[in-house]
Amino acid sequence: MPLEYDNSTAPFYSEAEYDLGSLNMTANGADTLRLFVVGQADNTAEPLYVAVEDTSGNVVGVTHPDADLTTGTNWTEWRIPYSDLAGVDLSRVAIIYIGVGDRDNPSAGGTGLIFVDDIGYGRPATVE
Q1: Residue 10 sits in a domain of what CATH number?
Q2: Would you state the pLDDT for residue 102?
Q3: Residues paired with residue 13 on neighbouring β-strands, in sequence order
Q4: Phi then psi for 12, rounded to 5 degrees?
Q5: Interatomic CA distance for residues 54 and 114, integer angstroms
Q6: Rounded to an integer, what distance in angstroms lies between the CA atom of residue 126 and that of residue 40?
Q7: Residues 43/113, Cβ–Cβ less than 8 Å
Q8: Average confidence (pLDDT) per 10 residues, the chain, 128 residues
Q9: pTM of this prediction?
Q10: How far apart are CA 124 and CA 44, in angstroms?
Q11: For residue 79, what are the domain limits?
Q12: Who's near 123: CB < 8 A, 6+ residues apart?
């Protein structure tokens, strides 16, 4: 999914949302949300976040710790443990948001284009 962002004007963050209905993301012992992201070298570095909303309207967001992720030119896997999404009912997920900027404290930022792929949930494989 391409996500073009222009955070130089209000609302100072850019996001895509996907309606999941009432998806049970805890099925089969799932404990991790995962996605892959790649940016472009000429992008302005901006924070990348994922937010999850349950069917009761509770929303919890997580920001990737490296704002330079949006300028990276190699695909990067981001694993989000469900413990980081405490406060939302992951057995009844209504909407997932993927965004660039600061959704909770918006301020003027930059522009760019990122690509997001392979959004999924489950349990990370163990390496022996």
Answers
A1: 2.60.120.260
A2: 94
A3: 101
A4: 70, 15
A5: 26
A6: 31
A7: yes
A8: 96 97 96 97 96 98 94 95 98 98 93 96 80
A9: 0.93
A10: 31
A11: 2-122
A12: 28, 29, 30, 31, 32
